[in-house]
Amino acid sequence: MEALIRANEGHAVSYGGDIWTERAVGKFRKHFGDDIEVFFVYNGTGANVSALSTITQSYNSIICSELAHINVDESTAPEKFTGCKLIPIPTRDGKIYPSEITDRIQRVDDQHHPQVKVISISQVTEYGTVYSVEEIKALSEIAKKDNLILHMDGSRISNAAVSLDQDFRTFTVDAGVDVLSFGGAKNGMMFGEVVIFFNREIANPYKFLRKQSMQLHSKMRFIGAQFEALLTNDLWKESAAHSNAMAKLLESRIRNIPKVKITQRVDANSIFALVPKEIITEMQNEYFFYVWNDRTNEVRLMCSFDTQEEDVEGFALKLRQLVG
Questions:
Q1: Does residue 262 share a domain with residue 214?
Q2: Residue 122 half-sphere exposure toward CB, CA atoms < 13 A
Q3: Do residues 7 and 117 both lie within one domain?
Q4: Quick one: 217 and 313 in the same domain?
Q5: Is residue 82 domain-shared with residue 198, that is, in the same domain?
Q6: Do residue 57 and residue 198 come from a single domain?
Q7: What is the mean pLDDT of residues 179-194?
Q8: What is the pLDDT of residue 315?
Q9: What is the Cβ-side half-sphere exposure of residue 253, based on CA atoms within 13 angstroms?
């Protein structure tokens, strides 16, 4: 917010020709290398959809987890704007694996069949788990072997970096990722995401598709200023480390509560748990969270950059009291 206020002085060139955007792009190049293309957009769905539109044709298909944001939480925007068929893979932990992908690369060059073009993964996954560097490299090998493009939805990429204790580059460009949606809003920004192309050859159409997708911000300095602040003095890491730590604390407080079962490994800043149906509404009256699966009463508990220990302790105490 302070960065937004500082940028809100005087006049600036529109559509990214300002010094804030220029400095923010420089920050990204320090993290990912000079040989990249960086584009600022409004939001996560816009980042994913515009990126996927750039690297596909309407006769293509996109392989992803059945829980992927592009498959579950972006309405039908990916299908509408790309024209592509999504091929969701069932998952137990949010991840997809090479053998599962190989099974779905079929009927290559068959005009009657959608042609696979993209493997899309989420880092952190929608189940809160984190791909290891080796797992991403294995997916990249499959992509390169079959002339596919590897896209990463990194809406919570900062949390993944902290969880892996790695810099961004190690599990993205160095691991074989071609296109990245880099999240800002889920790590404390007011608004703004970034699409980064590590393969510059496939980036050429993006500036036109960004405009067509209504993701070109005229006052781009207000996105650039936030990212410049986020990437300065490791603010991104401080915020993500805090939210991850709060999730670990919450895990420790609720794991042994009777009738509560944590369903996934807690790698980052989310916890998934089965809780008694009869207490959900009362818990939500005091603490906001989503019911992830209505049939099993699995809930998603998210910790953020500003979650406090007293929030965690209060939630756990309330949960224990209601469970009895």
A1: no
A2: 28
A3: yes
A4: no
A5: yes
A6: yes
A7: 97
A8: 97
A9: 21
